[in-house]
Structures are given as C-alpha cells and as structure tokens.
Amino acid sequence: MIRIENLSFSYEDKQVLKDINFSIKEKEKVVLLGINGSGKSTLLKILNGLIFPDRGSYYFKDELITEKRLKDKEFARKFRKSNVLLFQSPDSMIFNPTVYDEIAFGLRQLSQDGIDEKVRFWADKLGIYRYLDRSPFELSGGEKQKVCLASILVLEPELLLLDEPTANLDPRTTGWFIDFLSELDTTVITTTHNLSLAPELGERGIVLSEDHTVIYDGDINSFIDNIDLLKKANLVHTHYHRHGKLKHKHYHTHDF
Ligand SMILES: Nc1ncnc2c1ncn2[C@@H]1O[C@H](COP(=O)(O)OP(=O)(O)OP(=O)(O)O)[C@@H](O)[C@H]1O
Ligand SMILES: [Mg+2]
C-alpha cells in the first residue's frame, strides 16, 4: 500500500528526514517511534500528502504522490477519502460550530450519501453522541480527540495515520482505544514515545533516530527488549531514584 524510496525532507535548511526507505502492506499495523523532533509528525504529513519530499519518492497504492498529482481534483478526492491523518494536536483539526458538523464535514466535502446515519454511528461508537449539538471547542482534550477521530473514521479510510492518538486519553479510554484499533480492519500507522503502549498498537515498529534516519524496522518487541537499540534511539533515560535508603542512577525504559 505504501512505498517510500530514498526519501528526504527539509524545513528550509533543516533536514528532518534523511534517506528513508520502507514499504507497508495493506492491513499492517505499524508503530512509528522516535524522540521529540526525530521527524515522526513530518513523515505522517508526507504520507498524508500535506507536504512533499525534496528527494526520493512516495507511492500510495502504486501511485506516485506529488504536489502536481494532488492538483488533479478527482485523484485528490479519492486520496483524501482513503488516506487520513489524526493530527497530534486536536485543536489544529477542529473548526466547525458543532460536533455534528465537525464529524460531517469531510463527508459533505466529498458529497457522500447517508451522512446523518454515518455521523450518528461513529459518534455513538466513540461515546460522543451526547455532544453532537455542542461546540467542539468546549470539550476536554480527550473528548476533542474523539471528535477528531470520529471525523476521520466516518470517511471509512483505507489508511489511518495517527499522531500520538492516546496523548490526551485517560487509562480507561486508552484501553478502549487499543481494543478498538485491534478490531479495525484498516492499515494503521501510529506514532508514540510510550514504549509500554507501543506493542499494543502494532506488531511492527519503525524507529527514527535523533539524526532523522530509520534505525530499526521490524518486530516491535525485539526492539523494546534490546537496550543497545533503545540507547541508539535515545529512548531510554537515566535519572536518580531511591531503593529504600539507596539512591542511585541507571537506565530506565518505563514511561512517566
Ligand atoms: N513547520 C515547521 N517549520 C520548521 N521546522 C519544523 C516545522 N515542523 C517541524 N519542524 C522541525 O522539524 C523537526 C521534526 O519535527 P516533527 O514534528 O516531525 O518531530 P516529531 O518526531 O513528531 O516530534 P514530537 O515527538 O515532539 O512530536 C523538529 O526539529 C521541528 O522543530
Ligand atoms: Mg510529532
């Protein structure tokens, strides 16, 4: 479904993705890991056709995705329906006066049938039915996250790109989200720095290093169990802590 070949990307003169290569098959669930600033969100934006590589190629369903290709309205319409991105910050996605309008927006743009039924179905599935007439701006962070999720799932996409989807969710909702994701019959790429959550989000991990290259692509558990790889990705930390009266410092992989 996805093929990335020798892809590089820079914001002005700052290179944030270097010579990236990978392929993702249909229905695969992939976790994208890497420290702050390693380029995860940038990569998801490229996969969603919002920004374009300086070098290398990105193929989605065997089509080369370029700015020019997406100027073709019919192609862009198909692409935007099947390839969706949940932004890291829900506030940057929300702009409609009601939750209902927020969820219906994409379907209206695409002039789909059965909008009302679909909006209500997904609002119910995500537990936000009672907010349909409310302003999405008045909701809590987690509730906003669910509205954003409903607004992309309602399109019944083939590829879901999820940027830190559980960042605003409480433990119960995170548990629900993991179950929900595992039942979803869609290709999903999810970013996180949460190592204990990562294996729940997919079997395969792709890891970006601080210098913006892929340093691991494979079984997620093998990555998490390998302290040398974790150190290379800077995904372990040291801090002082106490065991009884003893205060000492060693590597930790737990999440805060
Ligand atoms: N619009 C932008 N203009 C200029 N630089 C940017 C822009 N967006 C991101 N960057 C820079 O590109 C680098 C990669 O950012 P990106 O958001 O992709 O990282 P990330 O891995 O998603 O980080 P985080 O874990 O903090 O979400 C960072 O150094 C960031 O400062
Ligand atoms: Mg990010």
From TrEMBL:
Residues 2-236 form the ABC transporter domain. GO terms for cellular component: ATP-binding cassette (ABC) transporter complex. It is an enzyme of class 3 (hydrolase). Its EC number is 3.6.3.-. Gene3D superfamilies: P-loop containing nucleotide triphosphate hydrolases (3.40.50.300). It comes from the Bacteria. InterPro entries: AAA+_ATPase, ABC_transporter-like_ATP-bd, ABC_transporter-like_CS, ABC_transpr_CbiO/EcfA_su, ECF_ABC_transporter_ATP-bd, P-loop_NTPase. PROSITE patterns: ABC_TRANSPORTER_1, ABC_TRANSPORTER_2. It is found in: Cell membrane. The keyword ATP-binding applies. Pfam families: ABC_tran (PF00005). It is a peripheral membrane protein. Keywords: ATP-binding, Cell membrane, Hydrolase, Membrane, Nucleotide-binding, Translocase, Transport. SMART domains: AAA (SM00382). GO terms for molecular function: ATP binding; ATP hydrolysis activity; ATPase-coupled transmembrane transporter activity. This is Cobalt import ATP-binding protein CbiO 1. It comes from Persephonella marina (strain DSM 14350 / EX-H1).
